Amino acid sequence: MTEWMLAQVADWGALALAIVTFLSCLALPVPSSMMMLTAGAFAASGDLALGPAAAAALGGAVLGDQAGYQLGRLGYRQAEGWLLRSRSRAAVLQRARHSVQTGGGIAVFLSRWLFSVLGPYVNLLAGGAGMNWLTFTAMGILGEIVWVAAYIGLGYLAGGQIAQASDILGNALGLLASLALTLGLGWLLWKRTHRRPAA
Asked: Who contacts 93 (Cβ-Cβ below 8 Å, separation ≥6)?
């Protein structure tokens, strides 16, 4: 299946990238990152125009993010009565909404490229928790620019060495994700230990 999808980049070019990045933002298992690397390599060899390919990948990703956000809003509206019926659920929901409003923009940005596997679920949560649409959209676009530029750019630089480029990028993003997770957990631990009253 992956070989067939990669062949679509050669056959359909930018349209294939738009469709696959859209679908990946809805949590469908498509090789969007590999297709963007391939598109970059095709652009380096002159078989595909770099600008339209990157724009199509970005456009598909942004539309996919918006679709996920709207699905989250719709799902919340359908379940709102049930959620608010219980005082404890309503309190949890209120805390979640507050957390999303105050720190959700960073989560949206990082889940586009650093923790991209979480992206579709962050879209749903952001919509369901009522995150400000403008903040969601701005942070989503910034994150998608990083994602598209990293994969298409590396494919362009790597040329015919797609497998090696994929390994390098995967390892680099894994290292960055591990560092971010370690720093985040360290910060939470520090905050928790300093919140306790002195004995």
From this structure: 83, 84
Sequence-distant (≥ 6) Cβ neighbours of residue 171 within 8 angstroms: none
Burial 127-162 (b: 16+ CB within 10 A, else e): bbbbbeeeebbebbbebbbebbbbbbbbbbebeeeb
Q: Which value, to the nearest 10 degrees, does the dihedral of the CA atoms of residues 162, 164, 165, 166 take?
A: 80
Annotate 3-68 with DSSP letters as a single string.
Answer: HHHHHHHHHHTHHHHHHHHHHHTTT----HHHHHHHHHHHHHTTSS-HHHHHHHHHHHHHHHHHHH
Structural domains counted in the chain: 1
Cα(60)–Cα(40) distance, integer angstroms: 16
- Region at 46 (left for phi over 0; alpha for psi -120 to 50; beta for the rest): left
pTM summary value? 0.79
* Predicted confidence (pLDDT) per residue in 164-199, tens digit: 666 666 666 676 777 777 776 777 677 777 775 544
Domain containing 159: what range? 2-195
